[in-house]
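cache lookup: miss for this entity combination. No prior model stored, computing from scratch. Input as submitted by user K.M.:
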Amino acid sequence: MSSPSSSARKRARSSNPPTPASEDPLSLSPRPREPSTGELQPMPTSPGTDMQSPAIQDTSLFSSPYHSSLLDMSSPLIYDTPSRGTPARQRPDLGSVRKAPQVDLNSEPVSGGSHFIKSSNCLQSKIFGLYAKRFLQRFIDPSSREDENACLDLNEPLYMQKLDEISVVGDPVLNVNCGHIQTFDADLYRQLICYPQEVIPTFDMAVNELFFDRYPDSVLEHQIQVRPYNALKTRNMRSLNPEDIDQLITISGMVIRTSQLIPEMQEAFFRCQVCAFSTRVEVDRGRIAEPAVCRNCNTTHSMALVHNRSVFSDKQMIKLQESPEDMPAGQTPHTTVVYAHNDLVDKVQPGDRVNITGIYRAAPMRVNPRQSQVKSVYKTHIDAIHFRKTDERRLHGLEEENEQKLFTEERVSMLKELAAKPDVYDRLSSALAPSIYEHEDIKKGILLQLFGGTRKDFSQTGRGNFRAEINILLCGDPGTSKSQLLQYVYNLVPRGQYTSGKGSSAVGLTAYVMKDPETRQLVLQTGALVLSDNGICCIDEFDKMSDSTRSVLHEVMEQQTLSIAKAGIICQLNARTSILAAANPVESQWNPKKTTIENIQLPHTLLSRFDLIFLMLDPQDEAYDRRLAHHLVSLYYQSEDQVEEEYLDMAVLKDYIAYARTYINPRLCEEASQALIEAYVDMRKIGSGRGMVSAYPRQLESLIRLAEAHAKVRFSDKVETIDVEEAKRLHREALKQSATDPRTGFVDISILTTGMSATARKRKEEVAQALKKLIQSKGKMPAMKYQQLFDDLRGQSEAAITKDMFDEALRALTDEDYLTVTGKTVRLL
Amino acid sequence: MPSVQDWINNPLGVVDGAFAQNNSGAEWEKKVVEYFKEKLKVNGAQSWVPSLNDVPLHYLKPNSLVKFRCMIQDMFDPEFFMGVYETVDSSTNSKVLRCGKYKDVTDCGQVDFNSRNAVTSERQTFYCVPIPGESQWVKEISFHQARVVPSTSYTPNRHKRSYEEDDEMDTQAQCHCANSHRNVESKRLETEAPSQNNSPSRCSSNLDLNFPLPGEQGPACLVKVYEGWDGFKLNDMLEVFGILSVDPALSLMADDKEASSLLDPTESMETVEEQRAHSPPASLVPRIHMLYAQPLKHNNPLLPSAVSEDKGACRFLSGVLSELTSVRSELLTYLTHIFLGDSLAAEYLILHLISSVYARRDVLPLGKFTLNVSGCPHSSPYTDQLYQIIQQLVPSSYQICMSLHNMNNQRMVPRKDYTANRLVSGTLQLASNTSLFLDETQLEQGQLDATGVRNITALGNLISWQKVDYDFNYHQMEFPCNINVLIVSEGRSLLPSDCQVHLRPALSPPNLEEYLKTVQLAQASSQLNKYRVYFTVARSLDYNISDQITKAVEEDFVEMRKDDPQSVSAEDLHRMLIVARLLSLSYGQTSLSRENWIKAKQMEMMRISRTQQQKCVNGNEP
């Protein structure tokens, strides 16, 4: 809400920096307004207003020591402000300037920087205005990666370009990254953090001066407001402590509740009932000092509040909860109250993850308004200055990992050291789920999945995004710790989701539209797949999933998006998730005589979308048993520390993966691409000898992804031959396990791509032909009994023919339009 | 030095004294805490302090020292308070520095908010409830003991003792009759349990005190923690010593809500629900300002709490250890009788009752031993009686009748209520080492709705991973737990379990109920106490496996696999190792011996053959 009737007086006031001219060392006594009221409020200090000091006491219920701030019209800054014609707007987020508590002149500022705001306050803030200006004019950040700066020239002063933008767009808000200020002028930064209430208006002024100097003719709704963000490091809600009160802080969290809009009175309008004389009174900390006497006619108690001529601003209460990642285990999340003002109202919705920059406030609570006893607890809240949604970036594609975990120098060098070790790949894979024994290749596969390939964008050429995520399917006997692996992965990755195929529906996986009972608003609730965007979705009991649910996965696993058309909402959500699925064989035990498809009864269209399919089988060999037994026994007596020494810490592994995913984007080098081509050609060749195709382009893509992931493991920016070798090896291992034709013993990729091995297909055709011959030999019979035909065929054929095979043959002939099957009769066409 | 009476009756006097002596540094705060710690260390001193679990709130003196044995149910946001503040006397205009620690409300006088000397400090609030499912005998014994100790002081309380004794008698009597009632119509009672929660109890009000289990009683408490709150976790058991604060001014605030909201707009930001949850009337939910808290490893009053490592405790422990084996054999006989002569089931029950999660390897909890006793008679109230017997043995337990109605209606998983900003408890929010008794014989055919499926999943997760995923609406949060789950069922349970024993009764008494009663009554209370101590001690022992035995176990495994690879899987080895571990502990042995390994193997073999036979029998049925 803007304040349409903002008067010139008000403009001057709120554009004015805090200028406490009083040299008075801010006495301890709580009588702050006495000396100043005369100047501040153009009403007589009648005994009525001034009355009881308790009343004043009431108004001074404020977190920081209250000190008078004088409006010094002779301040040079007032004259400097060239904001001609453009109204200023109050900044309730800073607390209106007038009630801004001033810096305590005698005490040292919290974090050193004592040179600001000494006695000659005006001068100092003017100096800081100049500093601020200098910063805005000169700051250049050539290495900027933020998407806000996407189209800006990085070698020009950044914020001047932003001013350009403002003049074009007309949105009078300038977001300033505190990190920039820190690199430019550490002192200025320190002051900003410690005294945001004073420094931000200084910035406001500097910006407006600059802006209206440059674009004197531009018309803005109100003067430009500076919104700093990214103060200090982004803090955890848990680390807030009393020292942060009245400082600029940035915390991250999740919005859990937002209140209705609350109109907050900024300025009350009073009119005398007798003589119609009107006066305005600014609201001071939620209280209005009602004029007891009309200044014009001296009637007492004649002033009445006129609501619709008072000035209001918008306010909203937001509840922020710690994000789950920041929390120590075994504790409940903390919440904080945030107030959003004016145009920040309704910027965030419940469920959003945000970084909020604002000023931390505390105010005491009173037990009873009529009692002097006070509850000795403060109420705390944050006045929001800037919101930054952290998950909004998902829309922007490439840079989403910018919310990056910040790694300390030591951590990075430690990780790099680790990466330089020749056996880093083995080390990491053995650190993965150490309690699960062996299955080295599976762990390696999962490790590569955790790293993922490089994301490539071919949307320009019309092909869209290439999938960078690696999908893995584990199948095997029950009780081979598949679930445990899934649980481990789910616990390892920040955006992991764990669902069981048995319990989940298509809706639970994708998204559903819900009507919010309170607002009657339609809300899109996202399911596991969308939630694990950029993470891993672990699906247990994949085989038990219903067909309709599984069909959702087709789109996700190749296009990496989810389309939703429900209740009038049509949208496509990103679901760039890797899928780690586990499936049990249909007949509780894995039947080695059957193919993978037959064992797990999954559609081959889905299976071919998995890069790696591993079998987790009991190897049944003595040496293995011995090692397994040793491993298990050691689980039961080794102390926690011993294990820690042996394996890499889970935290290190987490950081390693996060770092690699963020910073390493390997590209194929020439040799590697040659090696890949060769590998692919080889794969095709194997099959062609037997009249089968053993590789498809999808397999090539898988190889590339795996090679890239392996390069990421090495922290290498180039995919080299060794990466391709390992990718080939792993891919072959997985194929050997899952795509071996049990009848011939050869690896046959068509088992996975068409659901049937080439030999099986050949046999099917033979049966169909035999059946056709049989029917033809019977002469002109329009209809036959199903059972009889089956018996005839069985009698005729040398090989045993099962009912399934017979049915299949019938189906094949139906497809040829040779016959139709209705119930128990077979009709010729 | 103030006398005993002073530090219990007027702890704030001690605090203020220390503050006045030394108001410059932060030293005094430590001194105060040390002072109370020292005082409480004196032999028996802890029992002089009146317990909030036992004494009704209205008999306790405000601002006196109290103790409270509780579980942390919820953690509220940290709050800032005036650690040190200055008051102005309006008549003389003189200023006094005061200390705001351990208090809810400022002392008389006008507070000067702008004082330079004021210090803002931080404290954390925990919402604590009595330990859920605490057995009756724990309460009886712990407060009985307290009464025996000659309380030299605390006259106001002694005067009330007589009252309170009656009171307790009454409740006991009630409980007994409730129990017998339960025998007969336990099912009805279970289904009614949620409504019972609302029925006027000792604290008659419509305020939901948020107990995890329905039908619980006792005061809930807001515990204000001044230091080291990061060390506490949700569902921790604590013995809190602190200053009781029931200032009526706190309640006044809740009442005057309407009035104050008009005057102070910031106040109106909290919803009514939130107000109610976070500042309930002090008469119902008193505040305790924590001076000292003892984390409890167990809540068995027969044992010295684990923390105190004085000589007495050591002597006691070695005494228990020496007769562990004999107690075990007595216990085994007792349980065998209970299981109608099935000693194998009795063995497994012992192992189950001393199991405890002792470590977690990545996601895998080690040491859990969920037992499924199948083949329980369905028609008779056998399972209920079994539960009662277990209740007699363990310090805390809870029975869930898995009837369809219960599964579909009970709130098992705690859920965050964002309007009231609190964690609404569920039946699975239990303290460590609570015995959870799942009665599957009550489950009938029918439809499970969404809640039912969620509850079953939650139970499954609890059993497999020993964790409960609390529902935070926008996300779930995993809380590890350590709960002994015992499932009784007719056939194999639908829930996963570590080990299934099929009950094979050797005798069939004509009147099962009578029989069990007589068996129960035959146990003297001193005998029961021995068993109770046995379980707690055996559970806490350390354990290791020597290299030699490791080799032997490996050999054994390879050997077993050689004969028939299908028969023994890695999972079986896992189980055998757990059984061996628990078996050793049950004999008080801290390392695995060959004999125990062989015994464990035999037990497993017997058990497996039994279940296989059962399968055959079932298979042959027409």
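stored under new cache key. Chain B touches chain A through 86 residues (CB under 8 Å).
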